[in-house]
Each structure stands twice: as structure tokens, then as C-alpha cells.
Design goal:
Layout lengths: L17 H21 L6 H8 L3 H7 L3 H24 L5 H20 L2 H8 L5 H22 L11 H20 L3 H18 L7
Length: 210
Amino acid sequence: MTPDNPDRITFRKRPQQERSIQRVDAILSAAATLIAEKGVSAMKMTELAVVAAIPIGSVYQYFPDKGAIVRALLDRHAKLIQEKVEEAFSSVTSLDHAIELVCGMIDWYYSEFRGDPAYLGVWLGTDIDKDILQLNILHSNRVAEIFLTCIQPFLPAESRIDLKARTQLFSHLIGASVRFAIMSDDGMAKRMLGEWKQVIRTTLLAEPAL
């Protein structure tokens, strides 16, 4: 799969009418419930149809396989995160301000998804399929692009940072660190994220050594 060819894990039939949209929502809600209970690997399409109270044929009408369902749930989470990032960084006033916004986003990210048991199941489900893993990477890179676009006007002309590479790396690491924190005890999670924010303040926009 590539960004220009995402067909393998997309809707088989895109919902248009209100009834179809409601069916897809029911399927995704049931999938989130099952993933929260038992994980992606253990979720069965037949079981999903029973929980959603929708004929199995209707499930396959919209989603060709389990990967497509995970992709749709992943897209929902990714869209929420990207919208929040765009909103937060639309008001950047300086590089120091941008760093503090990153740290604030980490706090929001953790608190938003700490209580969502389906979240980890969906994102950890990226391990079941290389195409879904690629979607995770594309999401991280999109977040990096939003951040880079917003801070570029404040960068000194003589900066030697390979900012595209660095922002993509940090975007991926931030997502991974928050998911690790969510799997940890709340007290330790906050301590770890506090340390991680100190690393970000020190290194995210530090000029490379000569």
C-alpha cells in the first residue's frame, strides 16, 4: 500500500445514505468494544456481526476484511489527533512557545486516550498487517508536517537542523511514548511523560553539534 493506493484496507462500499452511515457506525462501535475486550487478533468478523446486530453479509458489504475495520478506527483516532495538533499550533508565537505546545499536546494525548480501552487495541493492531503499520507511519508524518509548517517562520535562516527528519522521528516517538504510558500505572506514566517532556525541551529544536 502507498498513500496513492490505499485500496486494500478501505471501504468496499462507501456509505452514502443515513441508514448506511448508521450501519457503519454500529459496526465500528461493535469492533471497538470487541477490540477493547480481547484485542484485534481475537476479533472475529462473525462475532462482530452478532454484537453489531447486523447480518454478516452487510459487514462484508462495507469492509472486505478485519484490516479494513482496524484502518477505519485508526483513521478516526488519527483524524482527532491531527485536528487537535492543527488547532494547537495555529497560534504559535515563537520556538519556545512551540515546544511548550508540544508538551501540552503530550498531556492532552495521554488524558484523551487513557480511558479509551479500544484505543490501544486499535493502535497495537498495527502489528497484524504491514499496510496498517504504514498508515500509522503516514499519520505520524502528517502530524510532523503540521508542526513543521507552523514553526518554519520562526526558524533562523542559519539553522542546520534536518527538521523534516527530526520532526518525523519525534512525532513517531511521541506517539509510541504515550501509548507506552497508557499501558503503565498512572503515577509512573506521568513521571515518564514528565521526563520525556524534559528531553523534548532540551533536544527537539537543538542545533546539531559542529
